[in-house]
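#random but structural
TW: two for the price of one
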Amino acid sequence: MSGAAAKAGPVVIDAGGFDALIAALAAEGREVLGPVKRDGAIVYDAISGQGDLPKGWVDEQSGGHYRLSREGEAYFGATLGPQGWKRVLHPPQQRLWRTEGTGENTGIIAEPLDTAKRAFIGVRACDLAAIAVQDKVLTEGLYKDPHYAARRENLFIVAVNCTRSAATCFCTSMGTGPKADKGYDIALTELEGGRFLAEAGSAAGEARLAALPSAPATDAQAREAEAGIAQAAAQQRRIDTDGLPELLKERPDHPRWSEVAQRCLNCANCTLVCPTCFCTTTDEVTALDGPETERVNRWGSCFTMDFSHVHGGAVRKGAKSRYRQWMTHKLGTWVDQFGEMGCVGCGRCISWCPVGIDITEEAAALRGSGG
């Protein structure tokens, strides 16, 4: 896990240095995961070197639209796909315990903690912020998730600063990017010619960089990196967050809620792709061919009927109340709970909504009259 920020200056590594970094992390017994192209999208899977990265691919994103196309030679030209790192740290399904034996000999066997060592390669600044949100929710306070904490403990993070933004990105408005400022061991900024400006963010990251073939970054290379990050920021859409939590809580009857309900399918895609949503439900599953039973924790969504089912009925019965609950929590009451908004501006909910509902447009509309 990332420690105190290191003081060494930035260095530049090439594709060979990148491969050496991956090899060194693997030699530590880590499962190395990074972006790969699969099934028409950028997803996170095991990688063994720069040859596995989606070099020369970029993403085209808008409301309800995601496509990959060829452009340039960048290793990290494509921004965000449907998956977040949450799928690894807080998986969609987690067994908590299982039974073994029958009758008086029945025992309950707790699911072992996953203490595997992992390295994440190519974590964007918005996803770093999302991991920090999940850290706060799942490892702090009275109710900690030991399975999440175990996976998080043995993690090495290599971040990638964005030099290109998708049309759905708005991390600058949320103060979470496009440059990583904390939460990483090493941060890379891709330069021309297959090189990377690398900076350490922890003692472990500094030690790992020191062992790689590299050269100190020149002033020109530092300026190139900063210009790329500034370009990514300039490409983004905006959301006005000034007073937004109070506005959302004060306008539960705004007509916009009814308008968005006419489009919302209650499919829960937005919560499934959101890197900060943390809600879960618990099932007990009995085997059909024997007495074994297991208790499983799985992702839940406030867009489903069962989520607010109390005393024989659902509290939030329609799309209007469900979308209002999700957005008001994400951008409003989350601040009351955790001291910050639950949105990091990644824009996944916009791209992966089948009808293209746009949280930034909804926030702007709710500022209008009629509340």
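TW: number two ↓
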Amino acid sequence: MPYVVTLGWRGRPTRGEPAELLKALGPLSPRFQPRLGARRVHTASYLDTADWRLRRGGLELTHEGASGPGSLVLAPHSVKLTEPPVWPARIEALPGGELRDAIATAVGVRALAPKIRSRTVVREIVLCDGEGEETARLRWAEAGTLHPVRKPPLVRVTVLAAPGRRRDAKWVARTLLSGEDFEPADAVGYDQLLDACGLPGETGRYAITPGMPADAAVATALLGFAEAITSNVEGTVDDVDPEFLHDLRVAVRRTRSLLKVAGDVLPGNLAARFAPRFAELGELTTPTRDLDVYLLEFDALADSLVAGAPEDLAPFAEHLRRRRDAERKILVRGLRAQRFARLMESWRAALSGVVAAPDRHSTVDDLTAERLRRITKRVIRRAAAITPESPAEDVHALRKRAKELRYALEVFQPVRPADRGALKELKRLQDVLGAFQDGEVQSTKLRAYAQELLDAGLASAPTLLAMGELLGGFARRERAARAELTGALARFLAQTRPVASASGR
């Protein structure tokens, strides 16, 4: 195997200047003479989604090139671009081919954008013996970040032995390490640059811990949801990708649910004051998200047609896009309004005050035991009452209560880790309940959309027939979910009843 070893340089970055490099390599003379190659500068932007989907999937995508179109690189694939990219960009904006196919599943509907932009200065240095023959080659590389923050370069020197000169290369490495300026190190990669920039960021900043005062624990969790709301506003307003709005809505729902479940432990009338405002925020975001979901599924729905053709649904698709444009304008106005900014500012200030001066008379442990017992029994009672003949309203009510229980289990999991089994079965039940509601809701909305098209004179006979075929598909989904519900309820009750009984003793 070829001899390769990487060293770290403790001294100041040299920027590849010859005099500085020769000074750093002084311990190698007079045995070896360095011959410096050309100074090269390499720039790269490491791309990922807002929620790090590529990194979580073990994929490293870069855009390389300081000017001009540059190239996209995902080893072993490389694609030269014909024009400079505009970030953020969704998957369909990338050139088709193997590289795009390799990341498409991981990226999904999210947009890609630079997480880190780096600049690396490199010089190849050939070490020659007294007869002018190459004994080893050094790669001096200084990698620093330009975005999101400027960080000093991490300097690495890679020693590679020339053929048949392994012993000489080992001497070079030992000699450099014997001084004070070099140390063993790993090569600089994406992870090292992320660490230098403090990314992906703090985890567990808003986590609750056993023994916390109950009001401080609830306020801490709510602060985490507030952070999620505000961090997704910009992406929602700029329409970067539909998941920003989805994540914002989830944070709003979690806020409303926790206020309902445990808001009474907050001082004064804090929960009563703010709950209606978050209900308004939920209502503001609903129409655009509903249309997003419809449009995200639209191609698959069109391809599912048997009697009709996908092009028959073109007027319907255009109608949905117009509706979304109108609803998005309302949403953006609401998120840009001072009313929303004041809401989040006063909400975070109030919660921070609770965390700073908590009431220590009760702990989150006591709160968790009491509230989870109460909510679990309520969900069990509703679940046990559901039969194949139960009206849709009862199924929807169970879905809402199940969602409250799920959010509570997730928030209080650090205090009650033993409930993970119940949470897992609850998520499965929610999937079935969600499929049932989606089938019914989509059927109802599809009828309304058809009427809107008719009223506007935009619906042809083929379009209405194709929409009717979609309606039949939604009805089948609803029936399938209803049939699956009985088994899902039985599994959930078998898993959850023992936990509820044990916590009640």
